[in-house]
């Protein structure tokens, strides 16, 4: 999930300043984590503690109330009686990456991905976006080829992954739905040659940059066997101490072989 966090931080400057090119600074002194990171880490905390996802989302969402949540999620967060609101927004996909490291079978990952989605995103497309992202990460960490990932995700979830970043970029605009974020993020990963290239391609689509890069970065981390050391250092520098502590606990339990050194 460190790759997802890194993607969020890289895309943070471009969410509302869309880019249609790849030669951009990935990280600057002004880069920051957003709601994508807060909810990714909240989902990881739910796994670590076996608490309900909704409880962890609300705990960390209220701790970081200005992280950039969507309007419906912000209302859910502060509601006295929160209920799922049938969302198919890309928030379900951006927060799911921890599932793919904590569980090892397809059936488990799909079931747990659904659990992370349904407290808010109980629309079939919201669940589908979380499941597609989680399965792509699982396949990547278990050694699948890119063509294997393309074939399985496109056939299982009916996503058009035959397109290229270049063909998408011209007509693509900001979109917060799973249907028009998850396939594009997967394609950014498929077209890229490295972790950094994945983030650049996702951001260059000119859409919801932090979420596109978050989703794509989560897959790329698994495929390339981690993130570059300088990216890891940026994540450590940018995360708030309590969020970094949960990330370290998760790394220690599930990613120790990928990142043998402590993050703290």
Structure description:
The chain has helices spanning 2-11, 35-49, 53-63, 71-78, 91-94, 99-102, 106-117, 124-141, 146-157, 165-169, 182-191, 195-204, 209-224, 229-238, 241-254. It is mainly α and 264 residues long. The protein has a single domain (2-254), classed as ADP-ribosylglycohydrolase fold (Orthogonal Bundle), CATH 1.10.4080.
Spell out the blueprint of helices and strands:
Blueprint (H helix, E strand, L loop, with lengths): L1 H10 L23 H15 L3 H11 L7 H8 L12 H4 L4 H4 L3 H12 L6 H18 L4 H12 L7 H5 L12 H10 L3 H10 L4 H16 L4 H10 L2 H14 L10
Uncertain runs with pLDDT below 50, 5 residues or more? none
- In terms of DSSP E residues, the strand content is under 5%
What would you say the CATH architecture is? Orthogonal Bundle
Tell me roughly what share of residues is in helical segments.
55-70%
Q: What's the number of structural domains?
A: 1
- Tell me the number of helical segments per DSSP (H or I, 4 or more residues long): 15
Helix-strand makeup class:
mainly alpha
Please name the fourth-level CATH homologous superfamily. Answer: ADP-ribosylation/Crystallin J1
Mean pLDDT: 97
Write the H/E string, N to C. HHHHHHHHHHHHHHH
Query: How many E-type strands?
Result: 0
Q: Return the CATH class.
A: Mainly Alpha
Report the major sheet.
Answer: none
The radius of gyration is 16 Å
Distance between the termini: 16 Å
Overall geometric form: globular
CATH fold node name: ADP-ribosylglycohydrolase fold
